[in-house]
Amino acid sequence: MIIMPYDNCESLYKCKASQVTVADKSEGALPITKDKGDIWFCTSCFYCEDICPDYSPRQYAIDRRRNKDQQTSRMLEPIDKLKKQGQLFDINKSINDIRTDNELPILPPTNTDEVAFLIDEIMALETSEKPLTRDIVDENQSKKIALFLGCLITYRVPDYELSARRLLTKLSVEFKDLPFACCGSIMTESQSEELWLIIVAYNLALAEKYGVQKIVSLYGGCSGNLRRANLILLENPEKMKNTNHHLAKISLTFSGKVEIKHLSEFLR
Fold first, then answer.
1. Residue-range domain boundaries for the chain
2. Is 60 within 8 Å of 97 (Cβ atoms)?
3. Alpha helices of 171-192 — where are they, by DSSP H?
4. Class of domain 73-267
5. pTM over 0.70
6. How do residues 5-17 score in pLDDT, each as one tens digit?
């Protein structure tokens, strides 16, 4: 049984205030640390890491349980979706119709060839030394801020996205939409740290390529994911070198110059 780092939690399980645990007492951070509940109910908001005075229950319980068996269909299915869609959810015609009805723009499609290329490279499913080509970006047309929606925002909460766009416009904040992929999510991190770092770096390198200086994310999990991987790469030259070795094959470079802010932080 996987439990908290110490048997008697002296801080009364502060992680029980996890958003998922609050919504369903049988799921979320606290039950998962007791080896109960569905490990995929965790959304990687990192609340438990922020609130735990010692070591995070996510580090000791959630990740360890997810790493037990990486070759099950449940573990591999999200990776396959990322390869085919660039996102965990397919932004198909019906989703775009909903977006249009909600006065939201049709987003630029993710370059799934590039995402699949990187995933195959790291998972050793297929390797290739042939670089992929990409369009040259006219940086004179670039705006300095890009919105990062992640997978869930576009699929489930268009009202939140619409309010964010209208608010930024009202405040005269110029921003743009880029063909971002999934933030890397818990799915890629559970497969391997290397894959996770490269998927995150892919998005940050895209922003650099388009002349963007700051990413504003609408989802806390995405914000934490992008920032955490960005910091790991900047603090580990060998990991950064390896990441850029793979990104170079699709004509991208990660330097860590892009700032990542959650919408609430940006507004503050």
1. 14-66, 73-267
2. no
3. 185-191
4. mainly alpha
5. yes
6. 545 666 666 777 7
